[in-house]
């Protein structure tokens, strides 16, 4: 039996091998290292590198706002008395991940590293699923290379180092993809039901992931060669609806029926938080330009071998991309579910394409492909390593990592600030972090008093001037991250700070490189005390 | 903070890197805070208390503010005050009622006290005003927690005195004299007023503190140094409030000796002193616009008290402080407890008094008999000073509300809100059940699809 790293014809799962004018690699014999095939060894190595990239310094920085919210929800669900005061269980999104995290918290207590480690482990599991999908579609080596790309891809590395829902969401969508591929390969109804169940879990992880259901339907509609009978489809629908139905059931059983509805209304009506060019600007570098180039090149140069597989992967990429591009709310991590499909397409190109001009070099082909794989992998590995090891960031895009100083600031607050003290911050993100780490009530100055213009889970400070004047709010927190994003509310904050002669009582600084190369300590978080 | 980069084996590098980064995280950040010395801490005291702040508000009886406070000796059931006790009429008697009207500045002279007290019958609260040709029915009104939310919050967390009597059965001037001298300053209530030449050489607690080197200040809200007994306004009700309410302004020596006069400052200085860690050992505070004196706003009184208390809690002085406040007289309002008469001057009717401290008993209602000289007693006991009079010598200290055996309580800022802090916790069991069903049902289908396919393949083999 051949175990070819670069020969798709060796893959029996391909249904309809086509006459292929594109030359492919020479088959090579299976090689084993201490009982493991080379492919398995490379896969294990990729998972190891992926683990290092995800766990290295994973807890060096404190949480960002979203991480604090999800962890706070899980802690509240686990009954943590301190965080239950500040983080309602129902806040935003269904919460299958928060539920799982709460089970761990119930046993081990609430610690930053637990949530991040759980997401990182789920990220590693996703890498394995990418391998499985790639192997099912194009053979083992394509799967291995796709998993390798995923393991070192900055987009996936960065997001799965944080307690965000998009890492677990990508696991669920990739599981859905695997089941869909199995269904397409085997035609067995049970896999279609599995697709339904996985889509249900996808929704329960983060409702926006449900857009992948559209992608699945589009794929089935566009590929008549994949037969779909009504009865299995109905059963798949039932399998999908059972988990989804548990979302409203959980809200009803908990006696909080209005929460999810409020949040949905707000999501539909809220203003756009980024310009149209946000995704085109931030996602390609995070996925890797060479990965994208490889994926797109493969679609062109291997077009003669086009099957339902490419239709599936393109549906998995294009539909979410269009939906989130149109959707007013944009976040760095939102397109992560498309990354596995892109990685597989890129791996397909890297393992299956032999350019015509290389035919003159008799010995060059596998090594040329391997060189290309190494180059592409290194192009991802270096920025991923940089992201994993960089703890100096003074401003980060939302969803792109932790925040320096917030944990230390919260610890200081717990020791030095009276209980039941009330804080005002420039924005709600720092307010979340003050509540999470400092266990004190905090309001974001920028949270609108108009319910239509604010996240329903945020509580506005209806009259900050009076609150400061009458001592209802006693502390103000400035942070460089928010200050760099909102000039208007930073100015408002400074106006109140000056008006009430707020006195600086704490600052957290980090070393920053100056223009001349010298390092100076710059404050990134300052706490002011307001007394009458 | 930068993470260390290592080229060792990944496992070693991971562990080493995490350790290094942890150390880096501990070493590199520079949190800074401001601290300064507190001179009062250096003084010897007989308790852990190094700072006393005593605030005098105005004109409320205990029942008018705390008559319906749960657990306190409040308004008894079945009370109906006769307008004319000599001719009782169940049809016209007035029952205590909740009010939000702070608009009545009833007469609260010694004569009114005598009529209301009625030789211990304590049944002349309306008759006293009827005799003056006034409608005093509002005197039977009382406030609720929504009117004085801060005071209720403070009582629930700290100490409420429900047998704290005004020292004098008269108005503000006499009671505030007891507050600082342990005496009314005169031999009887005949034509009681601040003497034309002030209170002369009458010893005050501030003289005793000065003699012992104990720091003190007298903070006055909206303080105007020009308004003293020497220029007291138009007289009668036109007398400047700070002249009536700040006894130190009626002594020549406190006005003329810069060493003493410098200790009389505006209330703003209280907050500055807290910020600068310079709160004196003993602080007397007289509020003016925020005194709660009818018809001024109780809300303003509550806000001022909250700001003073919270500022203390936010300062470094909190750990060694007692903050206490009371109302200088009953203001003509109904109070159902006939005051014991310990001498020719009093007691007068009960007044609300409260105490906050890291050593305060939690939610404690102190029913010991106190009066304003109980504050002097505490000062004298704590800083080893001799009594000023027989009143303070015999008084029970306000320390009955303190427990020095307990660990100092961390500060917990008090709010003006009476909204319940109880969280609306969703039923977690329902959430656990529904998500468990979702995960298990989906898991069974997904795992089943893989396993069934595998079994089928194995059967074929």
H-E string of chain A: EEHHHHHHHHHHHHHHHHHHEHEHEHHEE
Rg of chain A (CA only): 25 Å
- Helix proportion range of chain B: 25-40%
Helicity of chain A, in percent?
Answer: 55-70%
Question: Layout of SSEs?
Answer:
The complex is a heterodimer of chains A (532) and B (461).
Chain A: E1 32-33, E2 36-37, H1 38-55, H2 65-77, H3 81-84, H4 96-108, H5 112-138, H6 140-152, H7 154-159, H8 166-186, H9 189-205, H10 211-222, H11 230-254, H12 258-269, H13 278-287, H14 289-301, H15 308-326, H16 339-352, H17 365-389, H18 406-416, E3 422-425, H19 428-438, E4 441-444, H20 464-469, E5 475-479, H21 480-483, H22 487-499, E6 503-513, E7 519-529
Parallel strand pairs in A: 3-4, 3-5
Antiparallel strand pairs in A: 1-2, 5-7, 6-7
Helix pairs in contact in A: 1-5, 1-6, 2-4, 2-19, 5-6, 5-8, 5-16, 6-16, 6-17, 8-9, 9-11, 10-15, 14-16, 15-16, 16-17, 18-19
Chain B: H1 10-27, E1 51-57, H2 62-66, E2 97-98, H3 110-117, H4 127-131, E3 141-142, H5 149-157, E4 159-161, H6 172-181, H7 205-211, E5 216-220, H8 241-245, H9 252-256, H10 258-261, E6 264-266, H11 268-275, E7 282-286, H12 298-314, E8 321-327, E9 353-356, E10 364-366, H13 373-382, H14 390-394, H15 428-460
Parallel strand pairs in B: 1-7, 1-8, 2-3, 4-10, 5-6, 5-7
Antiparallel strand pairs in B: 4-9, 8-9
Short recap of the structure:
In chain A, 58% of the residues lie in helices and 7% in strands. Chain A is α/β, with parallel strands linked by helices and 532 residues long. The radius of gyration of chain A is 25 Å and the shape is globular.
Which characteristics define this entry?
heterodimer; A: 532 residues; alpha/beta; 5-stranded mixed sheet; two-stranded antiparallel ribbon; 22 helices; 58% helix; 7% strand; globular; disordered N terminus; B: 461 residues; 8-stranded mixed sheet; two-stranded parallel sheet; 15 helices; 10 strands
